[in-house]
Amino acid sequence: MGIFRIFDIASSGMYAQRVRMNVIASNIANANTTRTAEGGPYKKKDVVFVPESNIYYNMGIPTGVRVGAIVESKRPFRVVYDPYHPDADKDGYVKYPNVEVVEEMVNMMSSVRSYEANVTVFNGAKDIALKTLEILRV
Question: Which H or E element spans position 4?
Answer without folding.
Answer: helix 3-29
